[in-house]
């Protein structure tokens, strides 16, 4: 047992040495505290992994020594080889090996391996096996010659256990206070899931000081965003008012004269452009709003949060001296938009007062009206109105019921056999209520005389499924079908929008909003590729046949007919558009292009 445990400890040291390569990627730079934390994190992380492996390998000590040693040498040499190859993958893509990457590599569509590559891999396997076998052979001799004291093993174990607990506790504190030098380490270490807990930290921080971030220059970011410094409005052209109206969980089929009549009529009366095939960048709020404000895939969320990188769209508005009003019903701290998109906004309105979603939405509308009426009209304005009632299926008790029968929502009792009509009616009623509130917004724009000079984006952060695919899915964050990702998308005002008409039936995405506005309304002269992976909606979209979507722990490459889904473990599945598994081979060239977008803004050597 001691010999096996000693062998495991030696391999922890070897893996930790190999892991240094993760931190040598081009553009990586660490402060002394980040570097010190990396040491504790790597040692503690590999200790936890190898401790599990030690337990699994205990039965091998019961078989013949030569066979046992050979099995151990094979297992651990393969693990070290996989770790080394993962460092190569990480240097190329800035993410770690997963089943999806392996499928793409071995599909034959993307990568062709030369004979020399196979020879080198074979040599690597032999050398690694030889080293591991030599280590276990030397340990055999050592344990056979004399009784080995346990002191060294105990000290090593206590040190590694301390590394494990220290790294998780430090990360919990760093995450709470948004300290990027510590937080960014997570993206470098494979399978590393450090501990976070706002509840525990809240015990020690009664005053909520986590909202006051550590002010430190972001010198250690691994993100190259933008690719080049933005050239913003060099001719000092006039910029319009801009408004985002977003309904949480808004389904594409509930933008209609029946369910959202005020918005529908407003769009028709003001020659709005309605896009018929528009998708969010995710099936959850975090990635849907992230894509809307950054113009890049939601898969960057974790890295941008750890590096505390604000939206270029917001910082450009600030440079152009915009009045900025952020009005959200739910808290902007969960997800942490106060640490990402709105990081540079001082005195940020965190949320409406506590209460039901419908009452918070009402307060949101009233707060915006007060702000808008008293704004500095010598400057252009940006408004973000983010409603929550559809997400909560909520409306006031005294609000007239239009859609009947209305059922109560209880996620504990939902099943594939649940009748969706009463629940869907409750949902439609909540959309109808927010549409009722929005009439006050539309009226103010007209009465104030600012409508003609205001660009309005009306959309949802993601959609909301009512078991549309008959697979037992309700709500969102479950799959990437239309029912959870296709949203209304309407643009009204501020410019001749007819040039967009060519794209109303094309694949469009939340990624397209920022580049369109930056180019045509904020007069950013850079190429779009400097700051976005989206498309300009004023130019015909000719070559897009896939979209990249994500949520908290997975991502998907969506085409018209299929969904290539990769879960949090990196295991991929290939579905049709209704989330039924299909026995086909994906187009891995498309997957490769999506992965290129996922790594595009990671720092690379110039």
From TrEMBL:
Which residues belong to any copy of the Inner membrane protein YejM N-terminal domain? 6-230
Mark the transmembrane ranges.
Answer: 7-24, 36-63, 70-93, 113-140, 152-179
Point out the coiled-coil segments of this chain: none
Give the UniProt keywords, A-Z: Membrane, Transmembrane, Transmembrane helix
Domain named Sulfatase N-terminal: which ranges? 240-520
Task: Note the Pfam families from the entry.
Answer: DUF3413 (PF11893), Sulfatase (PF00884)
Database matches in CDD domains:
sulfatase_like
Q: What protein am I looking at?
A: DUF3413 domain-containing protein
Q: Which organism is it from?
A: Gilliamella apicola
Which lineage is the organism of this entry classified under, starting from the top rank? Bacteria, Pseudomonadati, Pseudomonadota, Gammaproteobacteria, Orbales
